[in-house]
Structures are given as C-alpha cells and as structure tokens.
Design a protein that fits this description.
The protein is mainly beta. The protein has one domain: Glycosyl hydrolase domain, family 43 (Tachylectin-2, Chain A), CATH 2.115.10. It has no helices and 21 strands. The chain has strands at 13-22, 25-33, 51-57, 65-72, 79-81, 87-91, 94-103, 108-115, 123-124, 138-141, 147-151, 184-187, 200-201, 204-205, 223-230, 233-239, 246-251, 258-265, 276-280, 283-290, 302-308. The strands form 5 sheets. Strands 5, 6, 7, 8 and 9 form a 5-stranded antiparallel sheet that branches. Strand 15 (223-230) and strand 16 form a beta hairpin.
Length: 321
Amino acid sequence: MSITRPPLIDHLYTADPSANVFEGRIYLYPSHDLDLDVEENDQGDQYQMVDYHVFSLDHPEGPAQDHGEVLHVDQVPWASQQMWAPDAACRDGRYFLYFPAKDQNGVFRIGVATSSRPEGPFSPEAEPIRGTFSIDPCVFGDEDGEVYLYFGGIWGGQLQNWATGSYVENAGSLSPESPAHCPRVARLRADMLQLETTPSDLVIVDEQGEPLKAGDTTRRYFEGPWMHKYRGTYYFSYSTGDTHTLVYATGDNPLGPFRFRGRILSPVIGWTTHHSIVEFEDRWYLYYHDASLSGGVSHKRCVKVQELFYEEDGSIREMIP
C-alpha cells in the first residue's frame, strides 16, 4: 500500500536534496525552486534558481530547520544564472558547498564555496573549478582519505556538449545504438578546491559487461549522480530523466566501471526526481523530491524522505514514492 508522505519543507519549493551527516545531525543542501509561472521546456529554462538554503534535522524524517539563505548568485563573480543541484562536504573542520551555475557565456560550470559551519553562510571562490562543466556535483569521500567529484547531466545540463572534450554548442544527439553519455569523475585535491586528476568517464555496463546504449532510456545515465558505500561495495545511483526513475549500479572501484543492478524508486509526481542516500544511526534513508506541494508543477518541487532497505544479496529494495 502506498501512502502520501508530507514534504519535509513546505514554506519554500525545494528540490535535489543532498543529505550529509555533520556533527551528529542531518544537513540538507537542496536547490531552491522559485514560485514562478513560466513556460517549461526540455532544456530546463524553467529552473531559474538563484540561491541556496541549508536545512538541518535531528531526525532523518524531520522537522527541518531552515538556516536561511547561505549563498546567492549575485555573490558569485563568475556565475550568471541557474544555481541548480548542489552537494556539500567537510574536511579538517572546513565545509565545502559545490554547486553548478551558468557562466557569463551561458555554459554550466561547477563552483565551490566554503564556510566554517555546515549551515553556512558560504563564501564562493572567484572562479569555477578548473576542468569542470555540466551540472549536479556529488562529492564522495572514501575510507582511504581520497575524495572524488562526480558530475554531469544531459539535455539542459549540457553534458552532451562536451563529448569531444571541448564545448560544442550545437552538439547532436547520439544514435540509439551508440554508447550512452557517461557521467564524469575526478579526484579532488587535498584542499578540496581544485581537481587533482582530469575528469574521466564513469562507465555503466549491462549484465554482459557492455556499456549501456543511448537508446536504453530505462537504464542509461541522465543526471543526478550519487555515490555511497555499503559493506565494501560502491553504489552509484542516478536518475534516468525522461523515463522518470531512480536506478543504481555497483562496482568495486570508485572510478568504475559499474554494473547496472536495478531500480530504487518508481516515478514520482512531476517530471523526474533527484536524490541522495545517507546512513544515520545504522539505518539508511533516501531523500528525493516530487511536485506534490504544487499539485504537479514540475519546477515547483518539494523534498521527501523514505527509509531505504538492502536485501541479503546487497541489492536495494525498490520503493514506491
């Protein structure tokens, strides 16, 4: 039986929740949808976000405390518009907010801002992170101390424009039988402000070990990368975009390849979803969004949470939102 779960945050439209445990609490770093009536298109021009709020929770299911605006596009020298899904990390008592935005030429880059507190406010670096592009940064710190940045989203996220290694404004679509566009991964420097390595493809393969095809829209990568580790296995999860599900793949190396395993979450109210997975007090939780708060308007979304369960073989039990 499905139930209607209330939004964790209902005084603002929020989406793309990145959940992290800092100082014994859950901290959420979502994007902030504006209450605008605008025409929607496949390039995401309706997502006109300009700032970020940080929320904290004593318990994964709320209530959520709003710590207010922590960063605005007007504070970021290189950015012009569309501050989409962020993520956060901590190292040596310093907190880092990673975020995408379009530069002055309309090209998505990934920036970073820092704070002495997980709730901010955050001070941005003057330039985007060298070598980054596209959207949806996700930061994963491994047990050996190495930290990785995952990113990328097709269509409005412009990942397809970088297939040659340089930005091509009018990049064409892939044929259905071509290998799908891959998310990118790079190791971060110790200072967490720049990349240590050049971004490479994170390859997702099928049961036969072949890269997923562009026409395999129920499994191929679209956007919203998230990495976590469970019992020594790396879990790379993401959104399929136009087929409206959250799915995952597993591997034994944070750089891939990853073998496709299945669905995590079936379609939500709204166009698609974007998520994070976090462990808190020995239980696991899936944070995601839908458009129930606005009655289905896809650019006016709200954050929700459900407990996540693993089967004995390490697979993730599929959930109904």
